[in-house]
Write a structure and sequence with these properties.
mainly beta, four-stranded antiparallel beta sheet, 2 helices
């Protein structure tokens, strides 16, 4: 099958419209049961922004801001300056968005092979390659059975650090288990030489305990410089497992760190202790949907929070990130979630969003195509249908800029050409942000 390749065209800002969440509920609807992902928030964008970029604030002028809209939980004040609603950065670039390929399914994760071919997962349980000329392969065989319902499915995918020698790929998925339960699993396999099959598939990690839930699988995968693998996990959304996020002796609402074969690194924070599971690296987390290695070598993650409480966190070994005890949001039915935003022994987010953006996919930009963006965070927005750019200085956010997209952005990947590639699940496309002419 050959996919349509389109010429570069400018994309103009979309009108403000509510976006459905992963469960199909309309924006503004309420729940009587478990919380859902934050991607039911309305689009609160600056509709006057054109795709050719934004006008940066001039030196000496009053700071300018995106049109964030009204806060959902105005009674909660940030703990420090620019913890939320940071001003527009002083510098930016003119940009445009190109459509690279269409006719895809719901692409949850993708990565680049050494020759520029894209290796991608579709949530329904299929894996493909997408050639540089737009040719989509037949489904790659050997993918395990997935729990494809609600937010579950075939999820993230990354290349092993030694891919050039071993052809090993690592992927996460919602794994069906006994008695109607499920949980996040991570597997590795060798991509066959002709790229048509996964060989020697091996499950190297299973989130425990299992649960009968269709939500909050987390699933972002990031290799550390030392070759260990971080796995970002969710807390399964329901009221009972949600409380387990404060108990590091299980995997619910955690970041785990494992070796490529699934064994446990000796220097994990709870190894040799009864206080936590050997695999657990950090805990107190809601639902990680974006993660990347920062220039400082640390893992950074962005998680779906409650209504008015998406968070950016820098992950430290053994740290407790507070969920569900502290935070800046409320439940999606409008009832309170937190009585406080701070507590001793619990980490503050580096940044949070109120209203939420429903984050998905994340990079620290390092390419040459956009020199003024080097070192900045780019994260997709499911609800806002925008890509958010965050500038940082000394580990703190200094600016926030929005790049309008034309749908729900599920993953963000830097390409070998320095462009910023996006998977748009609204219309089954891969797009890229490139410099404007």
């Amino acid at each position: 099958m050959r996919l349509m390749l389109l010429a570069s065209t400018a994309l103009f800002a979309v009108a403000c419209q509510p976006a459905d969440n992963d469960t199909g509920m309309a924006a503004g609807s309420t729940e009587t049961g478990a919380m859902t992902d934050a991607d039911s928030a309305p689009d609160m964008g600056r509709t006057e922004m054109a795709a050719s970029g934004t006008e940066p604030a001039m030196a000496g002028d009053e700071p300018e801001y995106e049109d964030f809209g009204e806060k959902e939980v105005p009674e909660f004040e940030p703990a420090f300056e620019n913890q939320t609603r940071a001003p527009l950065p002083d510098e930016t670039h003119d940009w445009t968005i190109e459509e690279v390929a269409d006719g895809l399914g719901e692409v949850w994760g993708f990565t680049f092979l050494p020759d520029g071919t894209i290796l991608l997962t579709e949530k329904e349980g299929t894996m493909h390659t997408l050639a540089t000329d737009g040719t989509l392969s037949d489904p790659i065989s050997g993918v395990p059975e997935v729990f494809n319902d609600d937010q579950g499915g075939l999820l993230d995918i990354v290349l092993g650090p030694d891919f050039a020698e071993t052809s090993m790929v690592y992927f996460s998925y919602a794994e069906p288990r006994e008695n109607g339960e499920n949980g996040t699993a991570v597997a590795r396999a060798r991509l066959s030489d002709d790229r048509t099959a996964l060989e020697d598939v091996e499950v190297i990690f299973q989130q425990m305990p299992s649960w009968d839930s269709g939500k909050h699988f987390g699933s972002r995968l990031v290799f550390a410089p030392d070759g260990t693998l971080y796995v970002g996990l969710g807390e399964r959304s329901l009221a009972e497992p949600r409380q387990l996020a404060q108990d590091p002796t299980n995997h619910i609402g955690t970041v785990v760190r494992i070796n490529p074969d699934g064994s446990v690194p000796d220097d994990n924070p709870f190894v040799g202790s009864d206080e936590g599971a050997d695999e657990v690296y950090a805990y107190g987390i809601r639902n990680i949907q974006a993660a990347a290695l920062g220039p400082d070598g640390a893992l950074w993650e962005i998680e779906h929070g409650p209504r008015g409480g998406d968070e950016l966190n820098r992950i430290e070994a053994g740290a407790n990130y507070g969920w569900p005890v502290i935070g800046y949001g409320m439940q999606y039915d409008g009832t309170p979630q937190h009585e406080m935003t701070q507590q001793d022994g619990m980490e503050q987010p580096v940044y949070y969003w109120d209203p939420v953006i429903a984050p998905a996919g994340m990079i620290f930009y390092t390419g040459d195509a956009f020199p003024n963006w080097q070192g900045d965070i780019f994260v997709g927005g499911l609800a806002t249908q925008k890509v958010v750019r965050l500038t940082l200085e000394n580990g703190q956010v200094t600016g926030e800029e929005w790049i309008p997209a034309n749908g729900r952005i599920r993953d963000v990947v830097q390409g070998p050409d320095g462009a910023i590639y996006l998977s748009n699940e609204s219309d089954g496309t891969i797009e890229r942000i490139v410099p404007a002419d």
